[in-house]
């Protein structure tokens, strides 16, 4: 396939970009860090949505070099931000399950000089569907390095509760579908509330994604969410723009 060939070439030439979306601390109103989001401008075609090219990268194994590239770019970038700002990096299940993932993380941390506590790895429930023991062992090794682990898209699947029981995640990120429905949908609001209660009981930081309005941000803050992200606080932008918009004093 032409798309696959272009992707292979782009990986070899490192023709990608990483955008950064602010993570907001709802209590202090200050920025807590950023999520790194991969972008690919396909020559002659324009931007390709990550869902599409990441799926191809997963099918072809290209996700291994591509995932390592994102991790490297994000850690080097974050090492230039003031501490204690964190960078959150999405990790594909295939990348995570690959034998040398922990070694890669350790090497990237060393090369970038980023303190392990300032790297947050976002994993999704789909990782947790197979090889439970191996996944738990890898999570424990990463935790021993000092890296933070977040469960992304919480509530979108159905395995997450079982996993919360078996691993002490540092953060859960409630899926944006719940936030986007919450003004009109009493059920979505009820789920927003029970997830933050659960997070409090388990002593896990709660993040709400996809916040697009000041009303949503205020409800989430009142409900006790520690952190939020979404277009209301800032869109994903290139690193220079991220620094100019969110890090430099006005
Ligand atoms: O940025 P956007 O909302 O278009 O991202 C779409 C999806 O792609 C999200 O689920 C996001 O987690 C995923 N994604 C973005 N960047 C990366 C990345 O670097 N690695 C992986 N595995 N997924 C990513
Ligand atoms: O699955 P994950 O949470 O990693 O997905 C992150 C994706 O969500 C990114 O592609 C990002 O562009 C998108 N995103 C971030 N903030 C918002 C928002 O406020 N609304 C919507 N619709 N998408 C958002
Ligand atoms: Mn994410
Ligand atoms: Na998410």
UniProtKB/TrEMBL annotation:
It comes from the Bacteria. Residues 1-250 form the EAL domain. This is GGDEF-domain containing protein. The lineage of its organism: Bacteria, Pseudomonadati, Pseudomonadota, Alphaproteobacteria, Acetobacterales. The chain holds residues 407 to 656 of 678 of the full protein.
């Amino acid at each position: 396939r032409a798309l696959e060939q272009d992707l292979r070439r782009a990986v070899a030439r490192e023709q990608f970009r990483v955008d950064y979306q602010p993570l907001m601390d709802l209590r202090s109103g200050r920025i807590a860090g950023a999520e790194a989001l991969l972008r690919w401008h396909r020559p002659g075609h324009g931007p390709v949505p990550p869902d599409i090219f990441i799926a191809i990268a997963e099918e072809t194994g290209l996700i291994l070099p591509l995932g390592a590239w994102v991790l490297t770019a994000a850690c080097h970038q974050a090492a230039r931000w003031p501490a204690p700002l964190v960078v959150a990096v999405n990790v594909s299940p295939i990348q995570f399950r690959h034998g040398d993932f922990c070694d890669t993380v350790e090497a990237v941390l060393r090369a970038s000089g980023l303190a392990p506590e300032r790297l947050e790895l976002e994993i999704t429930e789909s990782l947790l569907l197979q090889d439970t023991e191996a996944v738990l062992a890898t999570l424990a090794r990463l935790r021993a390095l000092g890296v933070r682990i977040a469960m992304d898209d919480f509530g979108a699947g159905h395995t997450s509760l079982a996993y919360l029981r078996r691993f002490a995640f540092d953060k859960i990120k409630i899926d944006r579908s719940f936030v986007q429905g919450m003004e009109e949908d009493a059920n979505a609001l009820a789920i927003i509330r029970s997830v933050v209660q659960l997070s409090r009981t388990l002593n896990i930081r709660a993040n709400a994604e996809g916040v697009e309005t000041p009303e949503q941000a205020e409800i989430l803050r009142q409900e006790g969410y520690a952190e939020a992200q979404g277009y209301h606080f800032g869109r994903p932008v290139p690193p220079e723009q991220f620094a100019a918009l969110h890090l430099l004093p006005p």
